[in-house]
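Lecture 7, part 2: worked example. A protein chain together with guanosine-5'-monophosphate.
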Amino acid sequence: MIVSKMCFLWGRYPHFLMVVQGLAMDRLKEKILTDGYVIGSEILKVDSFLNHQIDVELTLEVGKEFARLFKDSGATKILTVETSGIPAAYATALAMGNLPLVFAKKTVPSTMTDNTYMAPVKSFTKGTLSAIRVAADYLKKEDKVLIIDDFLATGQASLGLLDLVRQAGAKCVGIGTVIEKEWQGGHRRLEELGYRVESLAIITSIEDGVVKFK
Ligand code: 5GP
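Predicted complex, written out as structure tokens:
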């Protein structure tokens, strides 16, 4: 009954689907405003729903939105970096038809062989330089990779992941981030390199504890 009503609405009002999707992303912005916690004017803490405690329902909506945005990208694999990128990347992989999800590791487990790709990444939040690694078995030259991460700030994490894709001889077909802090320049930097970048909530400023969206 509900399904037939929805079909009727989509047929009659083609913008209805977009409105429903818009509402889900409005919920993300609302959650940022109600549950986010600002540290100075550069860092937003969303540990209570995105990257420590997880709002699973919202994360699944995030995945569906990325799947909609990148449906024509031809992606065959989702790539992210541990740990905080994994929930959104997982939801996206599921929404895109159970694509394989690979996450780059920040530590080297004893089970990881020498046959790995490695790239240095400067952490935005810690200011430290670390290496991220993916086993060569899981990134192949025929892969069309969609990169998903929780935040886009200066773009260093994405650049590191792009380096791994390049080493594998694979192709990056897009970069999706849940929250972008626009003024930190990552989006522009990645677009200038020729990549398509989509962010679900774009913050234009954090001033006196107030978060403003685009
Ligand atoms: P970028 O490499 O683009 O400068 O920063 C993105 C990475 O740093 C993301 O993987 C994310 O984990 C972390 N990050 C950047 N800004 C923030 C922030 O405001 N809050 C949190 N929690 N993580 C951030």
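Residues 43-46, 51, 84-85, 124-125, 149-157, 186 surround guanosine-5'-monophosphate (CB under 6 Å). The CA atoms of residues 64 and 95 lie 5 Å apart. Keep this in mind for problem set question 3.
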